[in-house]
Amino acid sequence: RLAFVEQAPPDPILGVSEAFKRDTSDDRLNLGVGAYRTNDLKPYVLNVVKKAEKIMIESEENKEYLPIEGLAAFNKATAQLLLGEGHPAIKEERVATLQSLSGTGSLRVGADFIGKFLPGRTVYLSNPTWGNHKNIFTDAGVEWKEYRYFDKATVGLAFEGMLEDLKAAPEGSIVVLHGCAHNPTGVDPTREQWGAIADVVEQKGHMPFFDVAYQGFASGSLDDDAWAPRFFAERSIEMMVAQSYSKNLGLYAERVGAINYVLADAAAAKRVLSQNKRIARALYSNPPVHGARIASIVVGRPELFAEWNEEMGMMAGRIKDVRQTLYDELVKNNPDKDWSFVTRQIGMFSFTGLSPPQVENMTQKHHVYMTKDGRISLAGLPSNKAANLASAIVDSFKV
Ligand code: PLP
Ligand code: TYF
Question: Residues in domain Aminotransferase class I/classII large (predicted)?
Answer without folding.
Answer: 28-393
